[in-house]
Amino acid sequence: MAPKSVMKKKQMKNKKPAKASKVVSKKVEVMSDGNDDSDDGSLDAIEFNSESDHDASLSEGDDGNVYDSDDLDEDLEKLKTSDPEFYKYLKECDKKLASMPEQDGDESFNDDDDYDEDDVEGIKSEKLHKPPTNLEIGSDESDFDEGPSNSGGDLTVITLSMIETWRQKLQNSKQKLKYITTASKAMTAALQRITANEINKPTCYKVEGSSVFNAVLQMCMFDLQPALLKFLKLPPGTSSKNMISKSKHWKKVKMTLRSYLTDLTRLLATVSSEDITCVLLKHYHQMIPFLSCLPTIVKPVLKRFVALWSANASETVKVVSFLCILKLANSDLSSYLEMILKAMYVGYISNSKFVTPNALPGINFMRQSLSEMFTISESISYNHAFLYIRQLAIHLRSAVTLKKKENIQSVYNWQYIYSLKLWTDVLCATLNKKQLQTLVYPLVQIIVGCAKLIPTVQYLPLRFHCISMLTKLSRETGKFIPILPHILEVLTIVDFQKKHSKTSMRPMDFTCILRLSKSQLQENVFKDAVIENVHSAFMEYIVIEAHTISFPDLVVPFIIKMKEFLKNCKNINYTRKLRTLLDKVKETSTIISEKRGKSGLLLHDLKGIEAWESDIKLAGTPMSQYYDSWFKINQQQVARKITNNIALGEFNIPTLKKHKPKENDGGPAELFPSDDEEYEPKFGSSEDEKDDEDDDDVNDDDDDLEDEDEDDDNN
């Protein structure tokens, strides 16, 4: 073995190293003697080491052809002349192949004896990657303390002087894109300060301290939007989407703005302070034109706006959120209005599930603002209104036909009622839109069906809600709706002759009630509330028809039913209001009948009838005058309920006043302080002397009365 290895070593030294590389023009395949087959068409499949079982000098392919290593040299020489650039590239990339020793065609390198000592030393001297001995293990605490790491190195801590420099550059520098990007990165760093575990954006800055955090927000709120307009070369106050998107510099700042607005939306979701939320929303109101040019982030931003508009407890936040939504809708009606209407309707319905005196103002604001949004575009609003009113009709049909508890509860709930109120407001606000006015009739049918679904005493509050909606539709649209039968039916449902079993001093208000409990039906204030609501419903509806030519015929059932009720009811408090109303209705009916008989109008003369009714309305009727006086008093009562006196209601219930103990300055203690807080004693004044004289007179009178009583006893 020794001589053979020595001769082999000498032969290898005499030979020049062979150059091997990837050959494109000719396929080189090396077949293994074992089970491992390689079909790769490059020279990377060849392993030039002792552990390989491949034949390095000769190999046989699948087609039976034998490839020699000398052929590779010839191909490489041809490649050198045909494509020198590619040959140079192969030479640089395949240094390992070029540095390998040329193999003998008759010998193989499968034995361990074929290794040379120099080759072994060369392998050992090859530089290999060695991991460090001490590895750092990351932890949650280190991430929270130091913030997200930057691949470029340590984070730069933002200082107040840096922020002041950036603000000056945003205002005066010509390189505004650089500092706009810097402001966006500073906002990302500020956001990571409060949401370190949620935001994984790479940033090169770090915010420490509340003063720096506030300074970063202040810089973005006041200086970023004017700098953007100057960079885009647009006039101040530009709000046009087309002008912004067509600016030649828009593409340069587009991705930066997208990142900034995303961070601003996340900041809105994390802030709990009402003042900071309002400031962020006002800034977002300025950035709406830029947001409209980024349709990919409009949906999450709109979701945040709707959440603040519907679920936030602050009235200011609700109003500013609605202004942002309105500006976004007006920026591009065709793209965003439909999505906005759907999101706002879902938010309105989901937050009107429970109605309380505290939540009622917010629900009313949502209904009024959403009805205003539906007046922007008639075609888009009609599609939504038709779809949602149809859904209400389907729920009502299921409740009427199936009569199951779950189907009835799907109608008799606050969400259904406030959905009807919304569409009532929308149709009353769009009188000049003929397409939407076609939905008045189906909406009236749904409201009537809802009121008549369960005509029992327990659901009288729901009936009064439906009656108020029908009255509003009749008053605003000018269409005749037969409401009187639904009001008169209440007088037959309730038994006013039955005595109550419970007494309550607090009046009952149906505003936040849909269904009455059995205990509420037994209270004395229940019948008082029913009479009050019946009287209000009569007043609101009759005054609408008081000037019409058909009024005498319209009120005939009312007069008959009211006379019957007044005859049977023995409670003077209930009959007093209704008797006065009946007298005014009779007086108005008589006046209309007399003027109608003298006018000589024909039934087909519609224009003449309209002119005659307008003259009667301007002149006034006894019913309209009575309504005006009642309306003023009713508004005062409503205002009293809205104020802090809502806990006491309409009754002046006496309450105990707790007096604060007064500090004694060394004088005699006051054993019995006065209950009157406004009373200030003026010792030695004429008023005190007059009061003392009055007290003496009263005491003298008491003594005289006691003497007279003693004389009577003696007698």
Give your account of this protein's structure:
With 715 residues, the protein is mainly alpha-helical. The chain has 31 helices and 4 strands. The protein has a two-stranded antiparallel ribbon. A hairpin with a 5-residue loop joins strand 1 and strand 2. The longest helix has 29 residues. The N terminus is likely disordered.
Low-confidence stretches: 1-67, 100-127, 137-153, 646-656, 667-693
- Rg for CA atoms: 46 Å
Number of helices: 31
End-to-end separation: 163 Å
Helix content range = 55-70%
Strand order of the largest sheet: 1-2
Large-scale geometry: elongated
**Total beta strand runs:** 4
Strand content: under 5%
Give a quick account of the main beta sheet: strands, pairing sense, barrel closure: 2 strands, antiparallel
Task: Give the class from helix and strand content and strand pairing.
Answer: mainly alpha
What's the overall average pLDDT, rounded? 79
Question: Which labels suit this protein?
Answer:
mainly alpha, two-stranded antiparallel sheet, disordered N terminus
In summary, what is this structure?
With 715 residues, the chain is mainly α. 62% of the residues lie in helices and 1% in strands.
Question: Could you give the topology of this structure?
Answer:
Elements: H1 2-14, E1 58-60, E2 66-68, H2 69-82, H3 84-93, H4 95-99, H5 117-124, H6 140-146, E3 156-157, H7 160-172, H8 176-194, E4 205-206, H9 210-231, H10 241-245, H11 250-270, H12 274-291, H13 298-311, H14 315-331, H15 333-350, H16 360-373, H17 378-402, H18 405-409, H19 414-429, H20 434-437, H21 440-451, H22 460-477, H23 484-493, H24 518-521, H25 524-545, H26 551-554, H27 556-568, H28 572-599, H29 606-619, H30 622-642, H31 686-714
Parallel strand pairs: 3-4
Antiparallel strand pairs: 1-2
